[in-house]
Amino acid sequence: MPVESGSSSSASAARHPKQKRKAHSLSIRRTNSTEERPPGMHRDMLEGQDSKLPLSLRNNLLDLFGQIEREFENLYIENLELRREIDSLNERLTGDGQILEGGDPNKGALKAKASHSTSQLSQKLKTTYKASTSKIVSSFKATTGSRAICQLLKEYVGHRDGIWDLGITRTQPVVLGTASADHSALLWSIETGKCVLRYAGHAGSVNSIKFHPTEQMALTASGDQTAHIWRYMVQLPAPPPQPDATASCDDDPDLSDREEGDLDGEGPGEVPTIRVATATLKSHQGVVIAADWLVGGRQVVTASWDRAANLYEVETSELVHTLTGHDQELTHCCTHPSQRLVVTSSRDTTFRLWDFRDPSIHSVNVFQGHTDTVTSAVFTAGDNVVSGSDDRTVKVWDLKNMRSPIATIRTDSAVNRLSVSTNQRIIALPHDNRQVRLFDMNGVRLARLPRSNRMGHRRMVCCSAWNEENQSCNLFTCGFDRQAIGWNINIPALLQEK
Question: What pLDDT, on the 0 to 100 scale, is given for residue 148?
Answer without folding.
Answer: 59
